[in-house]
Amino acid sequence: MARLADYFVLVGYDPGKRGSGDGQGQILQRFPEKDWEDNPFPQGIELFCQPSGWQLFPERNPPTFFVAVLTDINSERHYCACFTFWEAVESPQPQSHARNGEGEEEEEETSSPVQPAQLFAPKSLVLVSRLDHAEVFRNSLGLIYTIYVDGLSVSLENVIGNLLTCTIPITGGAQRTISLGAGDRQVIQTPINDSLPVSSCSVALLFRQLGITNVLFLFCAALTEHKILFLSSSYQRLTDACRALLALMFPLKYSFTYVPILPAQLLEVLSTPTPFIIGVHSIFQSETQELLDVVIADLDGGTVNVPECVHISLLPEPLLQQTREALSMVLDPELEVADLAFPPSTISASSLKMQDKEIRAVFLRLFAQLLQGYRWCLHIIRIHPEPVIRFHKAAFLGQRGLTEDDFLTKVLEGMAFAGFVTERGAPYRPIDLFDELVAYEVKRMKAEEGNKQKILRHIKELAEKLYKNENPYPAVTMHKVQKPTEGCHLRLHQKPFPRLDEGTVQWIIDQATAKLQTAPPAVRAEKKCMVPSGPPIAAILERNGNALANSARRLEVVRNCISYVFENKMLEAKKLFPAVLRAMKGRAARHCLTQELHLHVQQNRAVLDHQQFDFVIRMMNCCLQDCTAMDEHGIAAALLPLVTAFCRKLSPGITQFAYSCVQEHVVWTNIQFWEAMFYCDVQNHIRALYLDSAEENHTEQESPEEPQEAKSALEIASEQLRLWPTMSREKQQELIQKEESTVFSQAIHYANRMSYLLLPLDTSKNRLLRSSGLGDVESVSNSFVTNSIAGSVAESYDTESGFEDAESSDVANSVVRFINRFVDKVCTESGVTNEHLKGLHVMIPDIVQMHIETLDAVHRESKRLPPIQKPKLLRPTLLLGEECVMEGLRVYLMPDGREEAAGGSIGGPPLLPAEGAVFLTTYRIIFKGTPTDPLVGEQVVIRSFPIASLTKEKKISIQAQADQFIQEGLQLRSCTFQLLKIAFDEEVASDSAEIFRKHLHKLRYPQHVRGTFAFTVGQSPKQAMQPKAKEKNPSLRTLSKNLVKNAKRTIGRQYVTRKKYTPPAWEQRGSQHFPEDNEDEISVSEELDRSTLTPSSTMRPSEKMTMTHVVERACCRDYQRLGLGTLSSSLTRSKNEPFRISTVNRMYAICRSYPGLLIVPQSIQDNTIQRISRCYRQSRFPVVCWRNSRTKAVLLRSGGLHGKGVVGLFKSQNAPTPGPSQADSTSLEQEKYLQAVINSMPHYSDASGRNTLSGFTSAHMSSAGKWGSIRASGRMSSYALNVEIGSRLAGKDLLGTQHNGTPAEPSFLRQHRASLYIIGDKSQLKGVKPDPLQHWEVVPIEVFDVRQVKASFKKLMKACVPGCPSSDPSVAYLRSLEESEWLSQIHKILQISVLVVELLDTGSSVLVSLEDGWDITTQVVSLVQLLSDPYYRTLEGFRLLVEKEWLSFGHRFSHRGAQTLAGQSSGFAPIFLQFLDCVHQIHLQFPMEFEFSQYYLKFLSYHYISNRFRTFLLDSDYERIELGLLYEEKGERKGQQVSKSIWDYIDRLNKKAPVFFNYLYAPEDGEVLRPYSNISNLKVWDYYTEETLSEGPSYDWELAQGQPEPEEPDRQDTAAPQSKRRIIWPCYDNRSRVEPDAISKLLEELHNLEMELGQIPERWKDTWDKVKASQRTEGRQEGSRTPSSLLMSSGLSHQRRSLGVYLQESGVGSTLNLSLDSDTSSTSTPSSGKPGGRRSTSTLYSQFQMSESENRSYEGSLYKKGAFMKPWKSRWFVLDKTKHQLRYYDSRMDTECKGVIDLAEVESITPGTPTMGAPKTVDEKAFFDLKTTKRVYNFCAQDVQLAQQWIDRIQSCLSDA
Questions:
Q1: Which range has highest mean pLDDT (333-337, 948-952, 1075-1079)?
Q2: Residues 1495, 1508: contact at Cβ < 8 Å?
Q3: For residue 1071, how many C-alpha atoms fall within 13 Å in the half-sphere facing its CB?
Q4: pLDDT at residue 1614 tops 70
Q5: Contact 316, 267 (CB under 8 A)
Q6: CA–CA separation, 1498 vs 1476, rounded Å?
Q7: Contact 399, 408 (CB under 8 A)
């Protein structure tokens, strides 16, 4: 029972204390006068009666009532019910009045000056109680007021006495009727369970005032300990709101400042630093404005204002969302049906009281879900004398998976939760609604998630219980309390409240107290019981099954690996190790690891050998690495006993334990971790204590008890607590002592454990407790792996501790302090006696000191262990003859700016950084290693490039690993688009890095070209500098000497004294010859008078030998193919040829960079040539390099003109010459030379008339498709087509008025085209005027020079292979690509080439004369030939083209590639690469026109700079001869030499495998290609961007091929049954090998099958040709109307054929034919008339869509007479109307066409006569002759009819045409 009210107080206005401003209140009377013992009188009540200050009022206000709450020093709450009414103040003397209350008085007077002012002072009746029965207090105080105001005949003293003596039960749901003796009656109901708060309607009202979101904000703010302030103009509402907020927080109790109504005088309380919930009247709103960290809720306005600096953590999702939904269902049930067409009429919210309980039910459920399973994380440390319980926060958060959650973490750390644990942690106590909910209903709540009806039903059930708790008796008998009459407070003559008689009241109170003492104590037995624990957390959170299935396999891996380690199968363990480290990311695997390791510990000790120890340590470290300091999953806890169990013997008597190697983790410095661990262990021991004693008693009952054997500690505790009162005093003491000593022994144990993990192995290193360092978990690396296994981990810390000078005792001291702190805390919490505690403090320093001593010994021994093996250095595979110059230096390959390999946003595995070694060989720089990321640890990473391609090397410093060391490194960039960014490992001394750089430099820039790899291959690197050619082949040596000597002899020794000009010094790049060569050197630095070089018709024998070699050169073969002249001396033949092959340069005397044999016009004499050559730079005079077989136009090339020549040639042509000065004579000769070229063209004679532009406009000019981007930039007008080509290329607007300073008109008037266009450099041709009388025209164009190419290439490299990552890679890449201008240069080259092709195709000859004639000229000339002549698009032709135009015509490969020391300064200029890129662009646009594949181009791009072959060394044929290079190939083919010529190598490879072959090859006869050259049509070559890290560049075929073989067999074992799929990583795998195209795959399979059958495999090319041939015939025999061809070339004559790949529904079976048929038509026949490659006739058929009866219009057997003096033979003839030709074959079945007679050339068909050797049996009339323009064919048929038929058929064919 408890008193209803403790004190009754009468408080009034204190007139004496009216100082400045507000008045004060005073206590007039209080009952009882003396304090109750159990409940002292609260101070400061008068402040709370008038919270906004005591003031006088000019009129009477109606009485008010509110309840204020005061909290006393013991945090007991006192409820003060204040009933306030107003009384008139009698004014003693006016002056004082005026002095005091000036303000009020004046106001009064102004309003009603008539009557004297009367003021009213407030007076309060106050009840102070510890019970919160607001309604009862309101009624009781109201009754007292009524008695006074209405003057009822009831003694006030009696009523007050009764009120103060009334006692009621506190809880238990009793109903009690009380009466105060004034004829009144009230019924009081007490709640059934007082632990549940009583809220009546306050919660519902709070939600009405603020809304759902706002209240949730307040709720979270209160739980996370923020300051909350309510504002309202109603005191009662403030109290209600505060009460509601507390009710919502149940089961947590608010333990900070709680003042629902704060009086004005105490407003400074608001600036307290601690959290609070306070209510303040709205009039003080302005005072609250400057509070920066207070959440202010305005109840009247319905707003909650959260200041910027306050961050309120909200509930974790999905709970937040669920709570919101549930609240809206309760508060706004109409919301659900608001959209229904027929809303149910019945829906309405519950009554306010019910709604209040429903809202509380929602929050109760919320807490049950938040705290579910909390009892499983309680540690009971002591049971007797009273339970001490701790909550394991980390484990709770970890198991709930909410470690990251802000809200829950804060709640668990808060005071409210601490109180919750203290109150509800006890295992044996009364339980309430929350306990049941959290134990039994969690499963149900989980199941009902998402089902609104069920959730609502549950909420209503809970609400019912809550309501029942507050109102146990619903049918309440009505209260009966008198109320005062209406308006009584306004009565004028109201007598003041009477003074009460203290004696009477006191007497009533005393009597009641006496009565109570005599009465028996009413003890209400509390129903205590064991608190149910509910399901454990793991059972609640079922994990997604997928993760589990996935992890089962991982756990198996972990188990296997550990068992391998302990069975000493180290190799197996090593294999599994990366997978184990990968698995360790998952929690399950970490748990599994600890369990598995536990199994291997016998009797607390496991001695391992060094390797096992190392493995176990690495696993432990990896395991701990992913744990946070909280150790939420208990991994560190599980490992703690293990680190003191695993050990290894270092030497007799010295053992190293695992703990010395796993100290580097934050968790060990976290004191909460140690506490949790300690409590956990104590709990286990205490449990064991009681379990043992229980088992002793029940030994006999063991078998039935087994299932319940695993009693939790809490269950045991609750059992003990139940028995406690029944035990004897001694027994109790004994138990207390036992428990205390258990705790004490654990404390000693932990002091030891902590010293193990906190003292570093090397204590001299002062690592000083890492509580300060090691801030983030990431930096904790397994750094011990890189030092010795000994775990001298601390090595790396000397620099970091910052306490270098400190004594070693510092470490000891700090550890001692840490342990002392820990011991103090846990021992006081768990009630260890003071003596014991003191003893501990004495022991700890000794423990630490002892441990330091043992560690010193261990450290000393561990130093002696051999260091751990780092990953073994993998050796790279080398080429035959390639040798290592420097053994591998251990390095890390760091990621550069390319995203692919680093595994960033693009995805894919992080292959870089990789750890391995860098090797320097005579040929390449190679990195080979494995990725440091354990996830890809099994892969091998190789990145390499030829040393010769190195373009830039710079020193950098990199942070290779997270171990914080900045290492020195190198960044090496190569022009094969590769970048090696390496950081040297710390074991690499900096001088070895220097040596590496020196060697690299020496190899990159040898003194002489003989030092390059192509020469030194196969010799040991030391002798690289000695010339070897001498011994090998003396004849060659002599040959080159003879050549040079002859040259000197011929030239003679006359030097011209007047030097006209000095050509650029050819030999300025330092003497590149060996000393013994010096006497042979020809110096060209002075000009030789070439007039002595008379062409001699008789050659000396030594020259003859030279000549035979020269003839075999590529140029010569090509000249003969083009029919450009022969070497035969018979004059008859050569006279009618317009051109001849001149041997004027055979000694390289005229032009050293030209080949020995040149094509010049027939009419020009050799000595003229010698003079002309002076006008051109480097003496590179115009020579013919190609002739169009159709139009007979020729393409010439030369160097640019010298100034003098230009002037002479163009300025003074028609001016009368003042005298035959030398300049004029040369320019005349030059003119003659050009004229001779023009005359050689067949239609020159009538050039003036017919050869106009208009002739071809319709065909070409308008078909822009052919033209690509050289379309005019201006407005195309009808006559603009006739504008001369020159202005078109010069980039001028077509209709511009001025062109080169002349008006544009003449160019329109001039109707004929020039026969020869000279394309020259604009800058050189400044003053040139076009001359209408000439037959040539100069086209000045602007070209870029080599410097621009270099600059552009550098930028291109940086774009494709950036050195460091950029913020936005895709944009940065495109931007830098554009800035490089590489594509615009390619555009320019293609544009010029297409123009030249166009001119040649329309019959004008072109002379390309740009720069020195060996860079852009070469690019343009070669592209023109490639575009115009299909022969050059074959493998053989392309080789010839490169040999002729690039090698023979002296492109300076060594100089441009900076191959030697001399070229180092000039740098790398990729002229040839640019050409190959252009070819690649054309290849992309015309994929079916090239016999070679894109790979072929990449292969050349790589190897022309790699120096692996000798082909691309040196600058001209002359230099190659001089070194004895040019002609050795023949004699030495048979030698063992590694292939020196790239062409031989390509041929050999091409025979083996179809890597260079393009399966789409299906050329059209004589097709001239005109590629688009707009930049939008150009693509960046993938050669620049792709790489294969699995094998390095794939261009060294032997290396690339050698690898996958060993992989194959085991791949089949493991993966074959499951799946053939493989993951292909970009930048890692070689796509073409891993995923070959269908044809290569089939060819390879075929090859393998042949091998299996033991046949000699056929060459792939033969197989391919066969298959294609048979494919055609099959297609024919089936007669399918749909062509099986991919291409319909007949329909494609004018479209661009790159777009012509039509895929037809194929009638023929296999899918293969799609790929196969693409090679359709036969090769073009080169113009010289030799048949091209022999092709099957069937190829000719697939192009047509007609059925073949029409294709073969007529066929049969005829005899044909062979050519002159050859016999007659029977052949099978086919007449083909479509192709308009007569073909013949050996026999009917033959697929190879033996010859073709073009019907267009047939002039007549006449009956013939039998000639000698004709078939005897045949009638004479069966003979007929066919006369063509070339020859007469004699035929003979079987009989006359057949002959007649043949003649008719052929005739009709001819007439049709």
A1: 948-952
A2: no
A3: 11
A4: no
A5: no
A6: 8
A7: no
